[in-house]
Amino acid sequence: MARNKIALIGAGQIGGTLALLAGLKDLGDVVLFDIVDGVPQGKALDIAEAAPVEGFDATYAGASDYAAIKGADVVIVTAGVPRKPGMSRDDLIGINLKVMQAVGEGIKTHAPDAFVICITNPLDAMVWALQKFSGLPTNKIVGMAGVLDSARFRHFLAEEFKVSVEDVTAFVLGGHGDDMVPLTRYSTVAGVPLTDLVKLGWTTQEKLDAMVERTRKGGGEIVNLLKTGSAFYAPAASAIAMAESYLRDKKRVLPCAAYLDGQYGVSGMFIGVPIVIGANGVERVLEVTFDAAEKTMFDKSVASVAGLIEACKGVDSNLA
Ligand SMILES: NC(=O)C1=CN([C@@H]2O[C@H](COP(=O)(O)OP(=O)(O)OC[C@H]3O[C@@H](n4cnc5c(N)ncnc54)[C@H](O)[C@@H]3O)[C@@H](O)[C@H]2O)C=CC1
Ligand SMILES: O=C([O-])CC(=O)C(=O)O
After folding, report:
1. Is 176 a catalytic residue?
2. For atom 8 of ligand 1, which residue has the closest CA?
3. What domains can you pick out in the chain, each with its CATH number?
4. Catalytic residue among 176, 211, 236, 269
5. Measured in angstroms, how far is the CA atom of residue 52 from the centroid of ligand 2?
6. Which residue of 82, 158, 259, 271 pairs with 230 in a disulfide if CB–CB is 3.0 to 4.6 A?
7. Residue 225 class from Cβ within 10 Å (0-12 exposed, 13-18 middle, 19+ buried)?
8. Residues 272 and 173 sit within 8 Å (Cβ to Cβ)
């Protein structure tokens, strides 16, 4: 059976990590694409030379021409710029929107049948714009954020409870901004909701609130530490989980920025919600019920994303 082809648009910090993880997980052959000539080629060769040591068989190529992504099964987009300390993700809109136009046209011409995962920030607006520029069916394009935000929350919870990360589940929904929605009622240790664990004395409400807040600001915490860019290991691992679910038809239920057509009372936008990812792309949206406080938080987050989309339309009148 022919190997799958994975195209990585953007060969920076996340792109390089994606390329390595794709090999380690035997997901398929990898093409790294970047506008900076030499970088995708150099990273491709470096990882290909790691393959004999790690024992995976995959071809690696680097390119600065979109023709190289032809026939890709999965495209993961990290092209653009990351933020630096003092910036918000939203400050990236002007520059990254133009990048999404070029990437969208490249995908439309060379890989229109791919399952596309957008990572570029500000995420919920960029995946919306990428869908418009590429014309992809809305079940074949998603944004990566919820898996990462949930993984951060899971890490903090596992540390607090001194349990395996494997036994901690979490759902962080909404947009990928500081008003994202970590849902404590739907996050568990071995199936027991966090709200019950507070009652059982495993933690206090104050500590839980602090972990929720740390999750919301998790991206900024790493930007302030790194100073030159933003997180890349956990973002890459998160997107690889999504790609693997598609390529292996695993039908995992993952929180992703998905196109909503009435679900959660939202239409025509990409928002972080739990979805089933299988061979048909986004196969199902899981609509969880919110209590009044959760709904208020979710609606606030949706309103922020709507504001970003309006800002995109202001920058590029073709999107209006
Ligand atoms: N959705 C999420 O949860 C997360 C999103 N991000 C975002 O992911 C993006 C990438 O982050 P990093 O890999 O750390 O940045 P990076 O700067 O290391 O890599 C970005 C790459 O994109 C390339 N690039 C720029 N314009 C391009 C174009 N028109 N076509 C092709 N390539 C182009 C650059 O040359 C660079 O190699 C940023 O926007 C960052 O904010 C980062 C972490 C998490
Ligand atoms: O915070 C950033 O700029 C990068 C990002 O989205 C994250 O790490 O969650």
Report:
1. yes
2. 120
3. 3-142 (3.40.50.720), 145-311 (3.90.110.10)
4. 176
5. 33
6. 82
7. exposed
8. yes
Q: Which atom, in ligand 1's list, is nearest to the CA of 103?
A: 30
**In the chain, which stretches have pLDDT less than 70?**
none
| Cα–Cα nearest to 47, from 58, 34, 33 | 58
Query: From atom 5 of ligand 2, which residue's Cα is the shortest distance away?
Result: 219
pLDDT at res. 267: 98
Q: What is the per-residue pLDDT for 208?
A: 98
Q: 90 phi and psi, to 5 degrees?
A: -65, -25
Dihedral sign, Cα of residue 94, residue 98, residue 103, residue 109? positive
Phi, psi torsion values for 76, nearest 5 degrees:
-115, 125
- pLDDT for 186: 97
Whether this prediction's pTM lies above 0.95 is answered by yes
Ligand 2, atom nearest to 82 Cα = 3
CA distances from 84 to 91, 117, 204, 234 (A): 10, 23, 34, 18
Query: How far does the chain reach from its first CA to its final CA, in angstroms?
Result: 44
Kindly report, residue by residue over 269-284, the tens digit of the pLDDT. Answer: 999 999 999 999 999 9
Cα–Cα nearest to 22, from 92, 78, 97: 78
| Partners of residue 258 on adjacent β-strands | 271
pLDDT digits (tens, 9 = 90+) for 142-190: 999 999 999 999 999 999 999 999 999 999 999 999 999 999 999 999 9
Any ligand 2 atom below 6 A from CB of 119:
no
Question: Is 139 annotated for ligand binding?
Answer: no
Distance 106 CA to ligand 1 centre (A): 16
Report residue 79: phi and psi, to 5°.
-60, 140
Provide the ipTM: 0.99
